[in-house]
């Protein structure tokens, strides 16, 4: 996303006049989330300065710092676990734009993770994971793209230690144990991975507030 992200973190890039993270916080608040934990890495102070304590959204916003280096997705979540509590928690990437209904997210008693998958966008034609009868598969003839939206139980991270580490190996571990469920979402979802995709999204009609 450079040069846009040289001075602005991805979650504060604007879509129809509002930062990406603003849409996420609104949607999570409307879904009845009790609190939000935001992982801060590159230019994270700007995100903290924009969101504040969450009072204008009607729920508390807490922050987990990833300094001095970003911890990758799983490392960042693991560091935030003490702020998230013992119950299942939702995670959404800060660089996607979606109208996904977070209030409908559910995780079964035997699952450690529940993923939201979407049809493969042009820039990611091979997808990430398969889906069969509600279970996510590490590999399948037909694959879908991981939307960066999921529910996790804290036990999903059992055996992990503080540090920099990716999410996919943990997901594959859960899939092989048949402890990772998934659903396919066909609504609005965009990965804001390039300035061109951000420009295209801003040229499209704005979403209708739910």
Structural notes for this entry:
The protein has 210 residues and is α+β, with helices and mostly antiparallel strands. The protein has one domain (4-203): Spore Coat Polysaccharide Biosynthesis Protein SpsA, Chain A (Alpha-Beta Complex). Helices cover 24% and strands 23% of the residues. The chain has helices at residues 20-30, 44-51, 72-84, 168-176, 195-203; strands at residues 14-15, 18-19, 36-40, 61-65, 89-92, 96-98, 113-118, 130-132, 135-137, 145-152, 180-184, 189-191. Strands 5-10-7-11 form a 4-stranded mixed sheet. A two-stranded antiparallel ribbon has the order 1-2. It has a two-stranded parallel sheet with strand order 3-4. The two termini are 29 Å apart. The model has no long low-confidence stretch (mean pLDDT 93).
List the helices and strands and how they pair.
Layout (H helix, E strand, L loop, with lengths): L13 E2 L2 E2 H11 L5 E5 L3 H8 L9 E5 L6 H13 L4 E4 L3 E3 L14 E6 L11 E3 L2 E3 L7 E8 L15 H9 L3 E5 L4 E3 L3 H9 L7
Parallel strand pairs: 3-4, 7-11
Antiparallel strand pairs: 1-2, 5-10, 6-12, 7-10, 8-9
């Amino acid at each position: 996303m450079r040069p846009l992200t040289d001075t602005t973190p991805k979650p504060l890039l604007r879509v129809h006049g509002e930062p990406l993270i603003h849409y996420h916080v609104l949607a999570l608040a409307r879904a009845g989330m009790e609190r939000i934990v935001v992982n801060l890495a590159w230019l994270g102070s700007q995100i903290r300065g924009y969101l504040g304590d969450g009072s204008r959204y009607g729920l508390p916003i807490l922050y987990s710092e990833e300094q001095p280096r970003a911890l990758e997705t799983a490392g960042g979540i693991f560091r935030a676990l003490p702020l998230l509590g013992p119950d299942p928690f939702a995670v959404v990437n800060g660089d996607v734009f979606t109208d996904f209904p977070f209030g409908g997210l559910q995780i079964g008693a035997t699952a450690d993770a529940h993923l939201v998958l979407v049809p493969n966008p042009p820039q990611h034609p091979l997808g990430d994971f398969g889906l069969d009868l509600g279970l996510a598969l590490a590999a399948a003839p037909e694959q879908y793209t991981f939307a960066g939206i999921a529910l996790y139980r804290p036990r999903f991270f059992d055996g992990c230690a503080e540090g920099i580490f990716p999410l996919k190996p943990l997901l594959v571990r859960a899939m092989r144990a048949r402890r990772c469920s998934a659903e396919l979402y066909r609504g609005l979802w965009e990965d804001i991975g390039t300035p061109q995709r951000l420009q295209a999204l801003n040229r499209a009609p704005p979403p209708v507030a739910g």
